Each structure stands twice: as C-alpha cells, then as structure tokens.
Amino acid sequence: MEVAISRVEKPPTDFAVTPFFRYETVEDVEASRREKRAVMKTIELCEMRIAGEKNYIPTVPADSIWKTENGQAITYAERFSEQYQQFKLGATQSGDGTPLQQLRPFGISDAQISLCRALRIYSIEAVHSLEGASLKALGVSGNELKRMANAWMAEQARGGHVVSELDALRRKVAELEAEKVAERVVAEEALEEAAADAEIVSAFSGMTEEQLKSYIKERTGAAPRGNPSRETLLRMAEEA
After folding, report:
1. Which terminus of the chain has fewer Cβ atoms in its 10 Å neighbourhood, N or C?
2. CA geometry: angle at 182 spanning 180 and 188, to 5°?
3. Are the C-beta atoms of residues 26 and 41 closer than 8 Å to each other?
4. Can you give the pLDDT at residue 214?
5. Domain regions of the chain by residue span
6. How confident is the model over 149-168, as pLDDT tens digits?
C-alpha cells in the first residue's frame, strides 16, 4: 500500500491547524524492487486538520520540511513539537488554543460546539481566525460564532489591561498603608512621650516647694541655691 502524501497549498495559521501524528505502514518501493517481494516499512505521518475544512486534510511525513529559516530546515515534527512529543510518548494529542466550552458565557450551544468539531475547529482562536469559505462552512452559525469569538478575544485584551491597572492600584494602596503605619507609629510614640511628661508634671505638681527642694537635692546631691520660684523648682525636678 502506498500512502498518499499531500501538498500543502496554503499555509494556514497555527491556531487554524490541529496536527495529528500517526504511524502508517507502507510499501518500501525501492526495497521491494531490490528484494523482488513486497517489503513494508512504518513511517510517521502528520495530518493537518484545518479549521473549516471538512474534507481537506493535508498529510505529510513528519520529517518532511515545513520551511527553511536562516538556512535551517524545520520539519513538521519541529513545527508542532508539543503534539509530536505527545505522540512519541503515547499521550493524547491536543491542539493549541482555548477550548470552545469557554464560550458558554457568550451563548455557544452544544450543537454549535459539535458543528465546530465536525469541521475540525477545536479552539476559540481557530474560530476567530476563520475567514471566507472556511467561515461560510459554518453556515447560519458562522457569523454568530465569529461574534462570540471576537467578544471573547476583546474581553481577554481588556482583562490584561485591567489586571495591569489593578496591580498598579494594589501597589499604590500598599505604599499608602505603609505611610499610614509609619505616621501612626510616630504619633503613638509622641503620645506616649507626652503622657509620660504629663505623669511627671502631675507627680511634681502635688509637691510643696520644700518637697521639691528635697527631691532635687536627693537626685542631684545639691539643694537649689537662693529662693527659686515654684516654676523653677518644677523644671529642676523634671530635669533631675
């Protein structure tokens, strides 16, 4: 059996393509001719399921050249490296993009999701990229689905802007709160100092002048000279 290898006429966007890698056993024509019997070999193929294309599935060898960039050949396996790795590990191969179910808030129905899958459209980004015949393939649901995808994309764009604004606002609030905490600490320290001073003044204010002189002598080792006023004695007692 000889596998039919497709020629990719138009390179669609990555979101419009869901690659699927698989093995296929084919006849090795040169070996068969040399051995004069059918010789089979197993090769890796890459199917490219294109959004909006129900019957057109380009299929190429996984190691065939997708394009050459800066003199370096890039294969289809390299182009779709994530899916190729899933294939080699035996894991489920998943396409890129956001699942169609995320359009539920925008009104997508189960029937519309099934329609998209039937046309190999597996992500919101793929719906958003549809144009021309691919979009028309969705029939009467095409414009509505396109509107939903556009609305979702616009919301994501706004969301990124809003997140940036929220981050800036949070930083500003944190700075203001830090300033308020610092001001509160300074105010509390000032109040504590004033309260301590008030307690000292209150304690001395109940003393007689003789008691003040005795306190000053006890604290400083020398009695006040002369006949200082009560205000002077209070000040000297506070400083003692």
Report:
1. N
2. 100
3. yes
4. 86
5. 1-96, 98-193, 206-239
6. 999 999 888 875 555 566 66
CA distances from 184 to 173, 178, 179 (A): 16, 10, 9
Identity of residue 15:
F
Asked if residue 124 has pLDDT above 90, the reply is yes
Contact 59, 48 (CB under 8 A): yes
- Does residue 66 or residue 14 have the better pLDDT? 66
Q: What is the CA 62 to chain-centroid distance, rounded?
A: 32
Distance between CA atoms of residues 122 and 103, nearest Å: 12
Least confident of 17-31, 130-144, 199-213: 199-213
If phi over 0 gives left and psi between -120 and 50 gives alpha, with beta otherwise, what is residue 64?
A: beta
C-alpha closest to that of 46 among 90, 96, 81, 2 = 81
Report the half-sphere exposure of 173 (CA within 13 A, side-chain side). 6
Main-chain dihedrals φ then ψ at residue 90, nearest 5 degrees: 80, 15
Question: Which residues contact residue 113 at a Cβ distance below 8 angstroms, ignoring those fewer than 6 apart?
Answer: 100, 101
The pLDDT-based confidence of 198 (bands split at 50, 70, 90) is low
Please choose, from the candidates 15, 10, 17, the residue with its C-alpha nearest in 3D space to the C-alpha of residue 149.
Answer: 15
191: which residues sit within 8 A by CB, 6+ positions away?
A: none
Stretch (H or E) spanning 20: strand 17-27
Q: Which two tokens stand for residue 149?
A: 């995808």
Specify the amino acid at residue 227. Answer: N
Rounded mean pLDDT of the chain? Answer: 83
